[in-house]
Design a protein that fits this description.
The protein is an alpha+beta fold and 620 residues long. Helix content is 15%, strand content 26%. The longest helix has 18 residues, at 392-409. 49% of the residues are buried.
Amino acid sequence: MKFPPLSLFASYLQTLAFLGFMLSSGQGASAQSSSSTDTATKKVLRGQELVVSFPTMSGGFSARASAKVSNLKLGAGTRLSKTLSEGQLGVFSSSDTLGAQGAQPVDITAATVQTMCAAIRAANPGIDLTCEANSVVAATITPNDSQYGALYGMTKISAPLAWDISTGSASSVVAIIDTGIEYTHPDLVDNIATNTKEIPNNGVDDDANGYIDDYYGYDFVNNDSNPIDDHFHGTHCAGTIGAKGNNARGVAGVNWTVKLMPVKVLDASGSGTLASVAAGMNYAVKRGVKILSMSLGTTAYSATLENAVINARNYGALVVAAAGNSTVDTDLYPHYPSALPEDNVISIAASTSTDALAYFSNYGATTVDLAAPGESILSTYIGGQYAYASGTSMATPHVAGMAALLLAVNPSLSYSSIKSILIGTADPVAAMSGKLVAGGRANLYKAVLQAKTGQTPTPMPTATSTATRTATPTATLTPTSTPTSVTTYTPIPTKTVPPTSTPTIAPTNIPSTPPTMTYTPTPTPPVMDTPAESQPNPNTVSIGTERTRTRVYIFGEVSDDTDVPQYNLAVKMNCGGRVVGTKRTDADGYYEFVFRRPTRPIRCYAEDETAARSRRITIR
């Protein structure tokens, strides 16, 4: 059976754009010292103190102006009593108690702050008092990686605040189901997962898992144990997830410490088969990986791919999948695996430096979960170098990295808990409301805090990136304007990757023969509308439909005027005024399309390459 090729989501990156390249190792003249930079912006609740401040009124201090905290009840027999003059502040702890003998101190916690502050204000009417928990102002960690200033995505997802809590753990493993990884890259080598049960290059399957010498992972394209990246895409994704942080080199990943497992399922052109992708997924979860990063996809439904997702769910693994780059609503025009209904799939759209939904990104109110930065993303590149790229491929590793960091702070989290936290802590973005399940862009700090403590954090001031981002994706390999932190941009001579100029809506990588379906519907009379306009043609195109809870099957036959089936004839499916798929007829003249059930009725018809059309039918 020939499986349809999978591309790097709507194929590899229809909007891929290199906005510049760096030949340097990433250290460069701008490399900082080995210590990280601190910026005081973080607030952490300190549970044993209450701070009350009495601001200075116009005209300066006045000895007559005062605020009194008098006989404030904090518990059985416990009282506080202090007087504050104008311009002063008072800090009260649980040990500041007055009252009857045996009075017990009471903790000033997040649960009691609101009640106590209300009592203080009520006792001092007409005075503009401020009252709050005496929070600790701590330093926010900024890594010293030489190109960190160009990583606007890390600032957008509030990564520096999250890094105060955790920068990752070697116990968190992410499988990059992609073109492989350049596991010798200086910014990745320390974070590459290795199979300690396997002795490398001894020609023996030491761990008896069916794969000889899979020390670094496995190559399901060439069926060998060397999953080295011969394209670039997997290496780029790996850098966003887990480039070594604070090493005075290149970039920093969402996780400074993590383990990245290379699973090569796509070839040097950026495409692969369903069989290789499914085998790679099964391999990773069998090795115990709980996070699969999948910046790839196809518009053709595949039972093989869905079965691999179900297998991952049975192993407790989360599939982080790119939503695709065709600027379409995947509720109507699905992209797989991101639109599969299994609850262990989280689908990622791409956002920009201004929190807009990227122009190329797919969306879907029920099939795309949240957005992450995916336009003009700087990351690791083959040859030990760095490059910019754009697409939902670049957004996906941000979220895969976030999932890994959640496991670092709370290893007991299930895939469903991780997914729920990521969606529930997203920052609302008006432009994404109604287009994504979360209606917003991912926030790493809020997610990590909830994973660690169960708290919903106090909203932080909106962070802005120091890097200027005005360029849009372009179809060129020539250098463009550079961020201020980058001194040179020279085209990389070892690899030429021809990107597509703009995203297209038409599906790509249509197989020459349709995939085998596990569900074969029995043709039944469909609900028919008025016939579509047709041109005089000897061919006849029939059409029928059946549906399950989640999918719609559209099928039919093409025959000539003597009722002879027409073999290998291209049939286009037109729904809602646009072509949503193309298939070829089999030896019996049969064609079949599988789509996710639409959220609203839509009219469709089939048309063969001779322009013969079927009737119109309504899909519900």
